[in-house]
# Entry
Amino acid sequence: MEKARAGKRDFFTKVGEEKMGLFKEKHFSDESYIELLNVISANGYKFVRITECTKNASRSGALEKRMMLRHDVDMSPIGALKLGKIENDMGVVANFFFQLNAEPYQMLSPWCVDICRQLQQMGHVVGLHVDSSLFSEEEPKISGTIDWINENLFPMDRAVSFHRPQPKTLGKKYDSFVSAYAEGLFNGNYYTSDSRGEDLFYEKLNRLIENNQPFIQLLLHPCWWENETDRKAIFDKLAARKIRDLKRYLLSNFPKVFGNVIEDEVEE
# Structure
């Protein structure tokens, strides 16, 4: 009887392992992220910069399999820098897109600009994440914004990812910058994402890799990869950073006014 039970346990263990497929670590941690990159590389995929892709990136019969790893920085530049360092240590290039109007952080702040520069020094692409509900999707205006950032902050790459893109943007080609939603780069058949902090993307990514899909766009948001999955904990961390940034700003610009009010040190 005990032998039969053991055999039954072994059977279900094997079935469970088969369901997990290529990935064993299915949660948002540094360990699972490292495994994720290792699995992709081990299956023959080359990580590519969006600025080096063409509209035929997804064509069948390509000489090499390519993975366009994309990070939309909606909430956490600090998380973006952490992922960028992990990727750099592993010889991986990724594509980061920062928002001008993100409430959790201020892209124009010196510390965020420094993060953008660090990511570029590692070889990553740093582009603009355009909120389509607030900013125009017209090419001259977007291109002009990138020009302004280049002239005043840092040499931003001419690459754009749209936040909540309008239907007319999907598949559209721009002449002065490359869009993550351009034809050949974005298609539901070879795109997957960790949107809403869910790990359902693993299943589709597993299938795409096993089917030797020649081009895959994988969107991972840095805010979900800070080793914290509890929504309340994530909110508390973002709120604490917002307060820290406010203190830093006030102490830097109005020390005589707020020096006695903000008594605790501003931690990094």
About this structure: The chain has a mean pLDDT of 88. Helices lie at 2-20, 30-42, 77-89, 110-121, 139-152, 201-210, 231-253, 255-258. Residues 15 and 171 are 40 Å apart (CA to CA). The chain has two domains: 24-54+63-228, 230-268.
